[in-house]
Amino acid sequence: MGEPQDLPPPQPRAAPAARRVVWLVLIASWVALAAWAVFAYRGGQKPWQFPIPAMPVGAYHEVKEIAGPVTLRLDDGTLVRLGGLAEPATAAESGLARTRLEALAAPGTTVYVEPEPRAAGDHAGPPPASVWLPPPADRRTRPFSYSRSRLLGQVLVQDGLARVNEAEPYRYLNEFLTSQDDARRHRRGLWGPR
After folding, report:
1. Closest CA to 153 of 176, 134, 136, 135
2. 104 and 158 in contact (C-beta within 8 Å)?
3. What SS3 state is found at 113?
4. Are 163 and 176 in contact (CB under 8 A)?
5. β-pair type (71-74, 79-82)
6. Domain 59-191 is in which class?
7. Would you list the domain boundaries of the chain?
8. What is the pLDDT of residues 125-163, one digit of tens each?
């Protein structure tokens, strides 16, 4: 047969108190996980999403007057420039943009205004803003209904009545460029036959 092999010495078993502590920690972890899941799902949310209060970015205003082809005066007296748009190059372009803006946001029209950051070194003229046309039935509820509203600047760009200012930092720049490309391809407004 062979020589007897040396077996490792038997390991001491964990003390019953240590095993109880391990089990208590595991059970407490499971209970905490279950409580977290119930709390998270209670509001119809996914477990990794906790409720964050919606903070308004902008404010509702009424248009007091059309102050320029891409500029509005609001009910509180402030002037805002439609963000993301370049100033019209000619008087004819300016007239077209102003006429369309007057049709969209005549004095007394309720708009939702979100301030936008200025370009570095640009401190002249009215500050840029995203100006939204809420649907007529909107009751000024929070959060603002972006999906049912129209962005004034984008409407002007889609109609081919304004150009995009690509040098300006603007959160909707990609959408504006897409709309400008569409107006150019379909030869609307400024991009049409001369």
Report:
1. 176
2. no
3. strand
4. no
5. antiparallel
6. mainly beta
7. 14-48, 59-191
8. 888 999 999 887 776 766 677 778 889 999 999 999 999
